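Table S7 (text form). Paired inputs.
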Amino acid sequence: MLLEVSDLHVFYGRIEALKGISFGVGEGEITTLIGANGAGKTTTMRTISGVRTVTQGSVIFDGQDITKMAPHDRVKLGICQAPEGRGIFPGMTVRENLDMGTYVRGGDAAQKAADLAHVFHLFPRLEERISQLGGTLSGGEQQMLAIGRALMSRPRLLLLDEPSMGLAPMLIAQIFEIIKQINSEGISVLLVEQNATQALRVAHRGYVLETGYVVKDGSGHDLLEDPAVRAAYLGG
């Protein structure tokens, strides 16, 4: 496993948000976490990124214990996140937002130019908007920018938190095709997504969270066909 989360407990004040969850992300795989609002999905992502403090348990990345590692050091290892709500810099241009993705990573100018070209290949719209302020982009363009910025950090593990939130159906389909393309290039993906049907269709493996617990896991296909999962999360 590239990422191994074991017996993870996380609190917000006195409220226990994660109650001993364990799961893994395989090298080169798409893994999805599904569940209702408040299940602990975003808390899990923020904990893997290092933004939330672990009370108990461990986070292992490529054999290294990163449980207490600072967020920027996790980025250097190759863990990068496109957060829920996109989190772009609205007063900076598209180019400046993308450049921020290379801030911790470093690298020479030629390498950064190659990465920028790759992002523009995935998201041609961003190249068209290169000098436009992030805050003036549409919701779909901002989501592209958030993913593109994460890719500029050269991730080994890409954390995507609600990438389809607020998008039109046509754009949702486009974002999921891009997720599959990113994965086909060897990048492992951990995906949190309210659109559980779409998430399970692209995922190699999935985990179902309920109120801070993992209550079910299996292949994306098996969970997609599971009657209990269908009834609870897939509209029957």
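Next pair, protein 2 of 2.
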Amino acid sequence: MKALPAQLSRPLIDKAVSAALEEDLGLAGDLTSQASLAPDAWAEARLAAREPGVIAGLDLAAAAFRLIGDGVNFLPHLRDGDDVAAGTMVAEVSGPARLVMGAERVALNFLNHLSGIATLTRLYVAETAGTGARICDTRKTIPGLRTFEKYAVRCGGGANHRYGLDDAILIKDNHIAVAGSVSAAYRAAADFAGHLVAIEIEVASLAELEEALEAGARIVLLDNMDDETLRRAVALNAGRARLEASGGVKLERVRAIAQTGVDFISTSQITMAAPPLDLGLDVTIGRAR
């Protein structure tokens, strides 16, 4: 079954966009527009893709034009998650010219960044088609933008790993080093966690994988293993746990990883290395009233 579309909450959108507008407008507002445009000047603009990709962040762009002031109309022609070709019209914007110009950069910053993430995620997902492995993000996100970046991953067809330290237990190598062993760390976590809290443990070798499985692990992260070791891990596991491959997951390697038989592939590349999608806002009609 195809996953239902992701959705962002309006309070989160408005909070982030308001902060971005405040950062850009400062105390004096848009000096350039005030200096060059009459207060009653009118603008109509076309927001279009300048290269192919996947759209994400339309609600944030709409909020930028809504929160800048009264009278700006934002009319989207697409939905988040839609593919676009170069030249595709994404939305139309019209309203008082000073307001349109004042919100333009904030709207585009969110759209460019999030659409870039959705676009790169879609490429990773396409590379793993037919393997059964799912592409997941990580907590490696720009501070303050995690919710939106993870939303963009879903727009690109990927899945979300945990959002923060408080929604799942992921026992990593440093936790194991302090706890003393894989089994000690896992059993302590199992005793601590409630029945609805997922527990995953990271292993770096086949010996650690066997130790984790014997301790009762049901989700195991295979860290920085080469393809042959991943295949051996899948065979050793024999369906006992869900397996996630992570570390060194570049686009050119991801299909080979998926073909080893792992269930999930997590990568920071889709959030931390995604180039922005080139989208632009161009005025089609401008009138000095």
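Residues 126-272 form a domain with the TIM Barrel fold (CATH 3.20.20.70).
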